[in-house]
Amino acid sequence: MKKIALSLTILLGALSASNATAFDGDVNAGKEKSATCAACHGPDGNAPVNIYPKIAGQHPDYILKQLQDLKLGMTSGGKEGRMDPVMSAMAMPLSEQDMKDLAAYFSSMNMTEGATPKDVVDVGEMLFKAGDAERGIPSCAACHGPRGNGSSLAKFPKISFQHPGYIKSQLEKFRDGTRHNDLNGMMGDIAKKLTDKDIEVLSQYLGGLH
């Protein structure tokens, strides 16, 4: 818990001391380069299949970081960055400008809304907004915001309206250590304290979070 709090303090201090810079990706160029992405993520970034993430409306800086990390995961043999058998291979041939253009394009699209099952609203809201102090689980909203919109500067992703299947798989990967490209290991530390039920509830809750 102390590690998470310290990481947030350092991050917020760095962000407050810096000025935001314009993202220099080209939306039109990104659209032209996005054809191969459409098979999994849809032509507008709203993945038609639950296990793939919606990337429409995602922060461009976050998309860029993930593409960089996925490429690094392949070049380092999984020792660094983020390794995914499919996406790391897709990211390998991309130049830095390709990544920026794709990030600019998909971030300019609108993410489709999802829905939250009524039976998980109360428990999901409590865990998302307050965490669980007894188990050392911080509030998800502390980083991702009360509406799950995340932060572009901090590279915290928008997680509201995301497919439940994808949220579930990523929390499980953070928990078992197969995904480890999070800032100072914060998500890994938190996910290790989540039960299967916690993960199921959060993934369902976030699907329709407004």
From TrEMBL:
It is found in: Periplasm. Residues 25-110, 119-210 form the Cytochrome c domain. Heme c 2 binds at C140, C143, H144, M187. Its main location: periplasm. It holds the Pfam family Cytochrom_C. Residues 1-22 form the signal peptide. InterPro entries: Cyt_c-like_dom, Cyt_c-like_dom_sf, Cyt_C_IC, Cytochrome_c4-like, Cytochrome_c_Oxidase_Subunit. Keywords: Electron transport, Heme, Iron, Metal-binding, Periplasm, Signal, Transport. Binds 2 heme c groups covalently per subunit. GO terms for cellular component: periplasmic space. Heme c 1 binds at C37, C40, H41, M87. GO terms for molecular function: electron transfer activity; heme binding; iron ion binding. The keyword Metal-binding applies. PANTHER family: CBB3-TYPE CYTOCHROME C OXIDASE SUBUNIT FIXP, CYTOCHROME C4. This is Cytochrome C.
